[in-house]
């Protein structure tokens, strides 16, 4: 089945070296995975897909150097001193986990379903402790490139300054010696030999200064360390040794701090690799547009599914798959390696097109050779044609719809028609679902959990055991028959091939019959023997299928027709290829009328099947259109409802605003009217008082002279006692609710409120409320309920 290639393809999506290794190791262990473990792996992959969708690039593990982290852990646990690059790798790990925890918590807060889905996968890494103090300690000592900072210790800074000063002095000394050299026939330059500063002299003549000859050669020249530079070189070597010792001391102290957090770092490392492994499965499933399968456990006793007792691995229930109960349902299934190869070729060709386009543009900008540009343009056109061909010749998916009562499926058809690829596709899909990968197919997917997948595909010749192709197949099938169980998937390619057709057909019928009676849960077999197609009509456990063949173009379509046995196309193909007509007629005569009738019947079935699929596709197209129209109508209806609500709110707001304006205007007008009425009454009273004065000046009667006093006594008949109680001099007590007379208004009013501290009373006359002095009102009638 080439499962190893699939394992490597999935592992390539991991971001770390340890993640790739762990992913491939886990996938290779598919045989030992239990049903419960398979469901857990699928839930992990589903959670990682959800997390990738909500977090974007937050799950990019490619920036982590797990090899350096592992080396750091081994150094610290083994008593060695950690290196700067290893310490920074630990910092990168801790900061990544801290950022990842924030991303996971944000994704879990989206809804309850996300929380329940992500919690089992991320619970451990969320509980992991990231020591910010250790991160700061490492960052204070180690630079981003892994070197020890000058600020790591005062001694280190002092020693490095000393090294810098010595190097500067040596450079100045060497420059001076070279400038003072009076031998023009020789060339001199400063060089470093084993950390010591010296002068390289090329030429025949000797140097103009005394020195130690470190090396010499006719071509390379002579390396001379000037005597005057020896003390400085020695001092520089000593200063560099002190720098190394100071750096080692700083790293040693840092190692002690890391040792205290070693357990947490190991947990972070382990959980990061685990999450990288799960994310690799999720990235692979997303990259190839996979579907989460509904994985179920076959019932060993009755041969039916246990899906009703088990919680489905995906949100798609078996009832939603189709009304008919299927044992295996995989629509539009792709062979993962074929799809991977196609996408890689398409990606590579598009990259070549982009590179060639950029090269042509560069040549045009810089005006380079036109002939080469024409050649590149021709190659570019060819590559564009290649891209179009790849986009047009996409791998053809295959539908697998095996009914619940089917135990053995027999697939017939011509060579290179896709029979073997179909077997491998089912086998790989079963392994992928079992190990927690999405299946490269359309939704929905229903597939049983198999305890093992046994395949006999290809030639099995063995020169060392003197086995022929036929013998090799028989040995393989015998081992499969002995090891397979009622929960196994068996894939047999070209059953009965490699020997006499009659004997091969009889042996194939017996083998498939034995698998149907007491063998595997599901057996898929390909064959050229027409006799194996008749098993369906004598045993309900069998089903037929064939690969479609295009007789017009004389090539297979790589599609599978279900429920239809394959028919022979040899005579028809020979006729189309121009074989003499007498040979064609003789062949048909020898084949017999029965065979011709069977082929005609199969041809009618194929046409009916093809028409059915065309009508089904047309119905699905109309269904999709109706769904789109329904969705558009719902959107339009929602827009209308939202628009109506918005209009009602706008109208209500406008009415409220105008109502406020109206109340304000009415209040202002009423205020003006009340002030005008009060002013008019005051004016009338003043006129009446002036008139009374003028009449009194003419000589009023004695009785009339006392009238103003009486009025005055009446106006001031209400006083306030020392205790604050309001009474009038005649003994009347005004209270809230009393009816009083207001002379200024010449009207009656009702007492609403009394303020004894200010000797004021608030009265209401009709719609008006007035605040008056006590002397301006007269009590006429008190409440009867007093």
From TrEMBL:
Reply yes or no: does the keyword ATP-binding apply.
yes
Q: Which GO terms describe its biological process?
A: mismatch repair; negative regulation of DNA recombination
Positions with biased composition (Basic and acidic residues): 689-698
Where is composition skewed (Polar residues) in this entry?
703-717
Region named Disordered:
689-717
Keywords of the record: ATP-binding, Coiled coil, DNA-binding, Nucleotide-binding
Q: Which GO terms describe its molecular function?
A: ATP binding; ATP hydrolysis activity; ATP-dependent DNA damage sensor activity; endonuclease activity; mismatched DNA binding
Coiled coil where? Answer: 339-393
Instruction: Enumerate the InterPro entries for this protein.
Output: DNA_mismatch_repair_MutS_C, DNA_mismatch_repair_MutS_core, DNA_mismatch_repair_MutS_sf, MSSS, MutS, MutS2, P-loop_NTPase
Describe the location of the DNA mismatch repair proteins mutS family domain by residue ranges: 488-504
Protein name as catalogued: DNA mismatch repair proteins mutS family domain-containing protein
Q: Which organism is it from?
A: Aegilops tauschii subsp. strangulata (Goatgrass)
Q: Please spell out the taxonomic lineage of the organism that makes this protein.
A: Eukaryota, Viridiplantae, Streptophyta, Embryophyta, Tracheophyta
